[in-house]
Fold this protein.
Amino acid sequence: MTFSHNGAAGATLATGGSSFITLEQFIIEREAESPGSKGQFSRLLRDMAVAAKMVERDVRKAGLVDLFGETGEINVQDEEQKKLDVLAHEAFVRALRRGGEVCLIGSEEHAEAIPLLFDDCQGKYVVLFDPLDGSSNIDVNISIGTIFSIYRIPDDHVGKVTIESALQCGRQQVAAGYIVYGSSTILVYTTGNGVNGFTLDPSIGEFLLSHPDITTPDRGNIYSINEGNYNSWEPGLKEYIKWMQQEAPDDAPARPYTTRYIGSFVADFHRNLMKGGVYIYPANTRNPNGKLRLMYEANPMAFIVEQAGGRAETGNGPILDVEPEALHDRCPVYIGSPAMVEDALAFLSGERTSRD
Ligand code: AHG
Ligand code: MN
Ligand code: MN
């Protein structure tokens, strides 16, 4: 360790080493590994990163300029739209519209899918996103994020995209990612060849590879669920949570587990991905399909977690196998470390109980 003249420990900055790699370099290197690639997909990822930087700039300024609070509108989810929800939605739509690689966009903040270049569609890709996840945390300086999912349009849809072009099952995703605007800003994505994370260096405005080849632990000690909804849960889930709160015998994995629930899926997911844990947003008596949206919350995170060695289930099969019926479909979510999701499923099916 080195010490600077004022005595503070001098950590090695990513930009100070000789081996840093920017997101753009990384994308180009990966593209070169796919023979026949014409670069459209790389440009699309670059556009997403540019929009993410614009959103991060606005998030960092919120509170100083008039960006906190509601717009006064209600979105298609029947939720109050925040000003930053709308700004983020517009930043991504603008970047993708200009880029020309995308023919259809679906957003949490827009009732219908948005076709681009409708009469002369050159773009091959469909992008679905939650522009700002964790809206309830925007005004109180807690981590929020963006989640996105990318599909290729089916060949026979070229030039005549409809909403059907977007309604593909999660296994068809060609890429998925998220950005957390947190203590620092990180962009994590997969194209089905592992998961990599890039931290924004604000001094040079570049995402730099900081978390190569992310794998999630087989088991962690965190569970994330809104326990205020306890009374509306099914019996197997109540048993699972009770079991996680019990002391474990000497030879079993350490219990009790610890609860962490921020209320921004993207931030809860990222922490659990790195440290090991399970995030649950179950079906309940009020919401038989849970709360999280299949196409732009559950599916992208399911693709990422599976690529990192984790699991993502609805309680009725893998999230990635759910056939969507509409853009804003919801589904129950059990996602995270594989051994913990496995435990959850065993309790849900009644195969295990807290007395075992
Ligand atoms: P969004 O802000 O995009 O509408 O998503 C909110 C979601 C998710 O981020 C979070 O985990 C969950 O809602 C929290 O819901 P509860 O307040 O019901 O726990
Ligand atoms: Mn969300
Ligand atoms: Mn949102």
